[in-house]
Structure formats: C-alpha cells, structure tokens
Amino acid sequence: DAGITQSPRHKVTETGTPVTLRCHQTENHRYMYWYRQDPGHGLRLIHYSYGVKDTDKGEVSDGYSVSRSKTEDFLLTLESATSSQTSVYFCAISESDRGSYNEQFFGPGTRLTVL
Amino acid sequence: KNEVEQSPQNLTAQEGEFITINCSYSVGISALHWLQQHPGGGIVSLFMLSSGKKKHGRLIATINIQEKHSSLHITASHPRDSAVYICAVKALSGNEKLTFGTGTRLTIIP
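^ Those are the sequences you sent over. The predicted structure of the assembly is below.
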C-alpha cells in the first residue's frame, strides 16, 4: 500500500469553526489531491498540488483553502465550516513523469461532520 | 449529463456468478481507472488502462477507446467482492485531474 495517512480520521465540529485536515505521504510523490465524497456524487476534486507551494483549484473549491509547505504534507482548511461541508474527505497522491500519467493512490479518508 | 456514466448503479448477484460493470465516458481520455471501495473503507486502485485489456486474479478490465467504453468483469464472484466499484477517467487535457463516475454498488449473496 502507498504510504498515505490522513488525520484526523473522524471529526465533529460546529458551524463557523475552522477545521484543518492533514494528508501525509511517505512516497515522495509530486502530486497530491483533496477530494470530497458525498452520496449521489462521484468523488469531486477540491484542490490539488503539483509541487511544494504549487496548488490549483478543483471543481468544488469554494470555502476551502490548501497549503503545501513540504513535499510530504498537504493541508486542507475550512476557514469557517458549514453544514454543507459535512462529507468524507479523501487525499490522494500520484507521481507524474513528463508525457505519461500515473495512477492515483488514496488515503483512508476523514469523516467530517459539521453540526 | 455526467462525463462518466456507470451502469448498473446497483447490482445483486449470487456467489459464483460472472459480473460485468460498465463505464461510458464522453471525452477523449488518456487513461481510465477502476477503483474499489468497501463499505466504510478506503479506496483501492484496481486497474489503470489506456487500451486493450488487463487481468488481475478474478478481475478483468477492458477498454474500447473508439467507443468510449470500459467494462470491469469479475469471474467466480465471492461475497468479499461486495463493494462499490468506481470508474474514473483522465481527459486528454494537459493536467492530472480525474473525473469520477458515481459508482456501482455490488452485493454478492452467499
């Protein structure tokens, strides 16, 4: 299994509080991703990173920010959590060589409940 | 209309049956993933393919690029195969983003 951990694995918080989720990898892969998974929707990309300090928005980025100060860590922050952000969050990693595409490997997920 | 459509959405079968899950997509792609997610569990990559066919144990994945269609087959299905199977595609555009189907929930009854 690819070395990906997520913390916390479960969190319950209240509306309006800030929340930070952490993804940590030991594979030294270049790309890291944050997805959310909700019933009736496929996995949806929130933000991704293609290197240290290099990030870009995905399709559902509103209300989320990210940071990547080290290769191994990718943080997802909800500045002011809302109930619509209740979801399961998955981190993924991939390595990408020029001209090719490498599969993504997923972390175990974080279940976030916003009351 | 989603760019990636899976069928069926739900599938229940008896142990031992041959299973087929389908994935159709509407954009040109460079690669297609099949992923497996057990209830309450993480997501595991089963296959990544861009042409032809791949086999791993009882699982077989095929892709027809011209028809924009892929199938995942499970031979001699077993209750432990019960999971959600997810298809995801990487479009030919120059970034690494995947577009995911909503998954097929497979239940194998002993």
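Chain B has a mean pLDDT of 93. The first strand of chain B starts at residue 4 and ends at 7.

Shout if you want it in another format.
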